[in-house]
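Example record used in the benchmark description.
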Amino acid sequence: MARIGHAPGGGGCRAGPIMRSMANAKLGEALRLLGIGDEARRVYVRLLELGPAPLSAIGSAAGLAGAELSAAYGELVDAGLASPAGQDPVAPVPPAAGLEILGRHRAAELDESRITVGGAFESFRRQRLAAYHDDLVEVVTGDAVGPRMRHAWASAREEIRQLDSPPYFPLPSATDDALATLARGVTQRVVYSQASLEHPGQLEESIEPCVEAGEQARVLPSVPVKLVIIDDAYAMVSLSIKEADVHNSMLVVQPCGLLSALVALFEQAWQSALPLHGRSVRPAGLLPADRRLLRLLAGGAGDEVIAREIGVSRRTLFRRIQVLMARLGATSRFQMALQAQRQGWL
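Model output (structure tokens):
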């Protein structure tokens, strides 16, 4: 029994220093990200291990003394992580308030850095614009299209505006990227073409999940161009070829008169489009398939497309349309779509 008890104890002794070293390394990296200097990080680790203890003992364990120790410990005090230096012994203090301040400072520094880098690039761009006029439009092709689109969604801070229509670039994560952007609080306004609603699986697998997550969606019979505008920073224009179902190149347009024209084009399309409402309105007893049916009708889809998208026969489709017309008090499909829009069913 003694040998059985001894084995786990011995294993624990060997594992203990390794685990502590890993934990200290993780702690040190966290402190570095919060802006704590190298020597102050070493002191804080020893403070957690030995405190309360005399400051000289903490410094000895951290390999610091004199002015270096005073400066490192003073940094911890200023950050709200350690007791005042005049007290002896010294000890760590509850870090909640200090971490909040450090986090805010770090966020402010990152914002300032972002503004500085962006300003430097804008200065470069203006100089190049004055001299060469060659950096306003970038052509992205082939395998570079997908990563560039993902980066665009991830970089959005306030609003994404989009004119959407097939053909679609094969990007399996596109819907997840859009949902993640919505979850971050970024506004998304999308005008879909009738072809978008009719594209197999697009309504159920992509459009409806985004609308239900808060996307502001509208539909037109057609859109003039496939377009994505990220904030007011830049736009991406697809050079897709509809006849060949090819989407393997796009233009990235930087701030200039062309970008302003693209923004105006989107806003004009948005004003003309029919709304597709999401989670804000849920009429009692309306099945998801019936909501999809109404959206397809409003988008101008034909009976065969609608029946395929909701998975029913044409006879069943006609019965559902008659039931919906009766519920809405409509005598025609046009009246039904109009009433559905007015009542927030779309």
